[in-house]
Structure formats: structure tokens, C-alpha cells
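Batch 3, record 17
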Amino acid sequence: MDRLRTLPAILADAAAAGSGITFVDRGDERHRTYAEMLSAAQRVAAALRAAGLRRGDLAALVLSDAEEFLTTLFGASIAGIVPALVYPPLTTVDLPQYLDATGRVLRSAAARAVITDATLAPGFATLRATCPTLDIVLSRGDLDAEPAHDLGSASLDDIALVQFTSGSTSAPKGVTLTHRNVSANIAAVNGPHGLRTAHDDVAVSWLPLYHDMGLVGMCLGALHAGCPIVLMPPQTFVKRPAEWLRAITKYRGTISFSPTFGYELCVRRVKDRDLESLDLSSWRVAGCGAEPIHAPTLFGFADKFASVGFRAGSLLASYGLAEHVVAATMAPLGRGPRLETVADEDLVGCGRALPGHEVRIVDEAGEPVADGEVGEIVLAGPSVMLGYYRQDVLTAETIRDGWLHTGDLGCLSDGDLYVCGRAKDVIIANGRKFHPQDVEWALEDVEGVRRGHVVAFGVPEAGRADRIVVLIEAKGSASADRLTPAIRGRISDLFGIFVDEVVLAPAGTITRTTSGKVQRARAKARFLETENCELGTQN
Amino acid sequence: MSQPASTVEEGVIDVLKAVSRRPIAPTMSSELVSDLGFDSLQVLEVIAELEDKFDISIPLNDVPATRTVGQVVAQVATLLEARPVR
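Prediction for the assembled complex:
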């Protein structure tokens, strides 16, 4: 049984064990041992204290560079400062919009500091006017001081990190994890009943570090096991998916995770001529999770890369969410995808709960349902988050009697969890979750849109991202033709996703509850009904 | 060697059509996102395909400012001009 450790202890142990991180980006490669990462983190810790930050203060990390991100995360942790993971802007085109949304996150978190890169620091400095607690904006490049030895030490029940997910800016939700949460999860995931990660494994990842799968699933997992990890920027992968497989080939990668969409990009975009230089025979855990798992994509991947040594048995389906650190259930090693038909859909089994953890399916009253019946997935155990940062009501709604209510629908069959949908109305695109209210808020001030009369939702489509529909009531004579480009442009700049349809709704169609909440489900149901009627008449 | 503008134009349009997963008819004034329906992943895919096709390297910093097909064509043409003669 692994003993639980704080983040600084995990890094210190990894430093003592040798090994390290290789940062790659196409031709470039840069190696840092874990010992070098530790000493850089110690210098950051001292600099953060010197800048006036105290134990327990929350500092938002907005950094795209992986090495800077990791040394800052551990530096904050060593100094007893709570690091909050905030996603960096996709582009600087709509910087004011991005800062406005991020300002809401900082206010909700009562952030005392922002640590970012030199290009974004001036923008964040302007937020001090509207974020009363924010006194310190630091540029990562300036954080360097002689290591100090009197910084105190963390206990397992202190907060290890707060993760603000990309899609929750309108009602910011900071998933708050203790060192105990994080350590318990990575120990279970990588332990003898999990991936059996050992020091001779090699992890390879292109996943962003401000998300749980990239940071905890891949990076902290490798540190925990003291094995090397190879990191590449997400943009490099998305631009040239073959780079991921080249890195696995070159470094003899054994463990690498991705949402379905990463496998899909490889199936569609890796060219035949790229296959010649690949050798995927070392890859023993090809993990898949974070969004609904699409079976044909996984089988397509296994077929396409079988000739270069990829084994379908390496595909390992998992289910998890940030509120449960990262993983909650995992298929057994070496089994490959197991299929079952649930409600006319072929679903991939996501395995059993991690050791020491529990998964149940419950009905609306919270009572467990029989095997094979669909209900809400609820989780219990040491990985269940402490709560949402400074959001007691929301936390109490989400964690009830020790059970984390995920909002996801699923069923248990033969011990395996099958995930079949979402009870909460999130939109899934490009492997990320977006909250409809963020999309709606972003469109409030688009010329021609009636303020407060916007509804956004995703229509799940088999094997691809959701179809994203925006329903609006227009002001004056604005037409869909005129509004569509402005709406698409705004959403693409802010979220990097494409709005498939902009639909003008007659005045009075978009209704609100007595408490003022927009009735999204009702608008969506009406839209789908109309669409079905039209399809019916066409046939 | 510089290529005639029409070749660049045709090449760019071929790439856009290949990357798009719906039928499109791009013109020089079409915007990639709002008219042709490219999301941020597809924009990166377009860049990778253009780099391969024209043997150039497109700096990611310039991408946000490039919105129309005409701007893409102009940027590719500029990069081709700047490419060392072999």
C-alpha cells in the first residue's frame, strides 16, 4: 500500500529517484531532471514569499509553457500558496473578453495573485481595478530567488490545488482538491490494481496541464512512479497529430492518455507515409477518457496502427472528472475495449471503481437502481473533492452524504460502468466541456441580439463533437444572415468552437423561470421538435 | 522560384475544401470561421496542410489576424517570396 504524500513530497521523492521530463516541440527537445525541477520550484517558492504572498493565499496560474507551469505549480505548493489552474487565452484577439471572463473567476476565488507570462501580465494588472483582493500580478520570468528553508510544510488535508475548468466562467466553479485527494487518486490509478506504473515506464503526453488529465493523470502520475515523462504542447499535437505517435516511437512511450478526439485526429489525419517511421509496440496503456468514448473511433485507431505494432488490448477506457481528481473507474489492463449495447447505443465499458473507492447508479430519489438500469453516476471515496472553492451551497448540492453526484448518466453491468449521457447540460467539443451559460453570456452584447434572450445548447451527434445551436431573439430587423457571422466569430475567438446553427426565435419563445433562469431545456426541446417535424415533412 | 498568384489561390482553396467536412465554395472574401465553418482545430489543420503543400513554415502568432481566404493566400504568397532560393 502506497503511503499518501503531499505534492512537494512527491516531487522531492521523484528528484531523489532520478529521471525527469523531456519537453519536445517538433525538432526541439529539452531535458530537465526532476531534481532540476525541484530546485527551480524552490527558487519560485522563495520569490513568491518575497513578493508578499502568504500561506493559504490563492494564486491563479495562467501559463501556457509546460516547464514554467510545473515549476510555478510546485513552487506555490512548497510556499504553502494555493495554486489555481486557470486556462490561458486561445488567442489574443479577444483579450478584453477573455480578461472580463477571467476577472469573474478571480473575484469568485478571491485570488490574491496572478502568475502569468510577460505578454499577459499588463492585461491582468488592469483587473486589479475590478478584483478587490487581487494585489499582486507577477510575470513568471521574474520569479527567481535564493531558496529559503523556513517556508513551513503542507499537511495532507491542506488544499493542493484548485482547478477552474475552461467552461465555467459565468458561474465559476473551482474544483478544490486536498493533497490527500490527489495522492489517493494517483496511487490508486498507478498502483497494483491499476496501471502498475513503474520507474521503467515512459509517459508521453500532449494534454494541456491546466486540465486534470494532463496534469494529474499524466504528469503527477509519472512523478508518483518516478518514471520519465515526455511533454509536447497541445497545439503541436492538434496541428500535426502524428507528432504524438512519433514521440511515443522515439522515446519508447508506454503510457499515454487522450480523449476520444485525439484518437480520432490520428485516424483521420495521420498519413500513410507517416506510418513507415512509427513503432508503437512499446505502448502498453493507451488510455481514453474525459469525454464520451466512441467505440468505432478506438477500433479504427487499432486497425490503422496495427501494422506498426499497436495492440488493441492496450486501449484502456476510463471514466472520471475533475471533481474526483481525475479517474473514477478504469478498465483492467490489457483487456481492450469491451462493448455493450445500452439504449440502442454501443457503449465502451469503463471498468470498475478504483480500489478504496465506490461507484453507484442511483435514481432521482438517490436510491441505487438494479444492474443494467440507467441512472445518475455517484461516487464515494478518498478522491471526492473537498468542494467547490468558496461555494458552499453548490458544494452541498453536489456532495450529498459523502456521495459525489456527477450529473452523468450510466449503468453498471457485469461490474463494468457504462457511461451513456449527461444529465447536466454541458456542450462537448474538441475534447472539452463548455457550459451553455458561458456561450450565452459571451453573446449578450452582440449587436442585434436581445439581451438575456440567448440560449445555447449542444445536440450530441454519434462519433463527433456536439452540434452547437444558438437560439436567439433578435432586436429590430436583425436577420440570421447578418447575426450569424458575428456570433460565430465571437464564439470561435473565445472558445475555439464552431456554432453550427444560429436560429432566430420569435419574440417570447425564450422563457425564464420565476427566479430569472433561462429555460434552456424547454427551448432545446422545442427546437428539436420543430426540427423533427421538418424532417418528417421532407421525407 | 515564385509561383503565379493563381496557383497559390487554387492550392489554398484545395486545402480548405479537403479539410472542411462539409461542402464549401470558398471565395477570396470568405471568412474561415464565420463563413466556412472552421473551428480552431481545423484552422491548425489547414496550417499544417498548407505548410506541407507549399513547403513553408507559418508562424502561429500570425494566425489570429488571418481571417479571410484572401488573407491566407496573401500570407502564403509572402512566405513563398521570402523562402530562400534553392
